[in-house]
Write a structure and sequence with these properties.
Length: 360
């Protein structure tokens, strides 16, 4: 149901899902543990946010001095420019400001800046945020927001799900460090996977189902979401503890592995099927097909990523086309995807696989 909700949200362009404070706190803590000074003296840009509601803004503003930030910038998208419409009412925070403009409130985005003590209490925190209307609607692709991007050291946000590809390209184009949420399925996008394979980006620390606040009220659970980043953290350097192939076949907790004489070998590529990350045999030096969730445990010191066995990417890797007569036995077969023949002689296509090899 969680994945179904995400799909429906994408179709409806209902991209407004506000990340909960504790999810941000838990994720960012991992980067601070690895490098306590990771944000010190840096400018952080939070685009795609509604600063009055955003927990990203609240979190980084409250921790401004603790992190040693130089500057915090948070921007929002104009209500009238959003594809997903709902009853809009400006907050008291906005309407009570001397520069409130009822028309601009609907058609212009807003920018919040935090860089010094405004209240005079000797601290820099959320109370010192200052805001103005943007010149435009706040679209991250606009020249106005691109200029802010180019001035920032870090870009951190939960972008619109339907614009994930474009948003990531926007960050990579500027060669910035970033932390952003997305659907786990994005790892196989042709614009994303090569960056993961080349260790230019990787998954964050806390993946899985998350609950998001929605602007119409309430909470919506989204499955299969994860953090994408190029900020280093300690977990990606922790090697997995693995068993030998013989021990997996004898002791694995998965019935698909335990009791077999050998691992399944694909028919159209020289590799074995490993349906669970904890069933990867450390003494096998060939290529293995593993679930995409493997990337949540991937250590570049332990593994080499060979490629993604999906569609055009699979064809480029050299996956052989399936014999057309097999289509009668399994209509789901597709060229560019792995398949094997089960004990009953039926061709089976595993869910999307990433091909890896253990580094020797």
């Amino acid at each position: 149901m969680a994945n179904e909700s995400l799909s429906k949200a994408k179709e409806a362009k209902n991209d407004e899902f506000y990340t909960q404070y504790h999810d941000i706190e838990k994720e960012v803590a991992a980067y601070l543990e690895y490098n306590p000074d990771v944000f010190r003296g840096k400018t952080v840009l939070l685009p795609c946010d509604d600063p009055e509601w955003s927990n990203f803004t609240k979190y980084f503003a409250q921790n401004f001095e603790t992190f040693g930030l130089k500057k915090l910038i948070s921007t929002s998208y104009a209500p009238e420019s959003k594809k997903y419409k709902y009853g809009y009412q400006p907050t008291l925070f906005e309407t009570e400001a001397p520069h409130f403009d009822a028309d601009k409130s609907k058609t212009h985005g807003k920018i919040f800046i935090l860089d010094h003590d405004v209240t005079g209490d000797g601290r820099i925190n959320v109370e010192d945020l200052q805001w103005q209307y943007l010149e435009g609607d706040g679209d991250f692709r606009s020249p106005e927001i691109c200029k802010l991007r180019d001035q920032a050291d870090f870009i951190i946000t939960n972008p619109p799900f339907s614009l994930f590809r474009e948003f990531l390209a926007w960050i990579i184009e500027a060669d910035k460090q970033f932390l952003t949420l997305g659907n786990m399925n994005a790892v196989s996008y042709k614009e994303v996977f090569p960056l993961i394979k080349d260790n230019k980006i990787w998954l964050g620390v806390v993946s899985g189902a998350k609950e998001y606040f929605i602007p119409t009220g309430g909470v919506k659970k989204m499955g299969n979401t994860c953090w994408f980043t190029n900020i280093d953290h300690g977990r990606r350097h922790q090697s997995l503890s693995l068993m030998t192939m013989a021990d997996n076949l004898k002791f694995s907790r998965h019935k698909e592995i335990q009791g077999r004489n050998e691992y399944i070998h694909y028919e159209n590529f020289d590799a074995i099927e490993v349906p669970f990350t904890d069933a990867i045999p450390y003494d096998f030096d060939g290529i293995m097909g593993v679930p995409k969730s493997f990337l949540d445990k991937y250590s570049p010191e332990q593994f080499e990523i060979i490629g993604c066995a999906e569609g055009d990417s699979g064809k480029e890797l050299g996956l052989k086309p399936f014999p057309r007569e097999l289509k009668k036995l399994n209509p789901s077969l597709r060229d560019g995807q792995l398949y094997y023949i089960d004990e009953d002689g039926i061709p089976q296509k595993p869910y999307a696989r990433i091909l890896i090899r253990i580094k020797q």
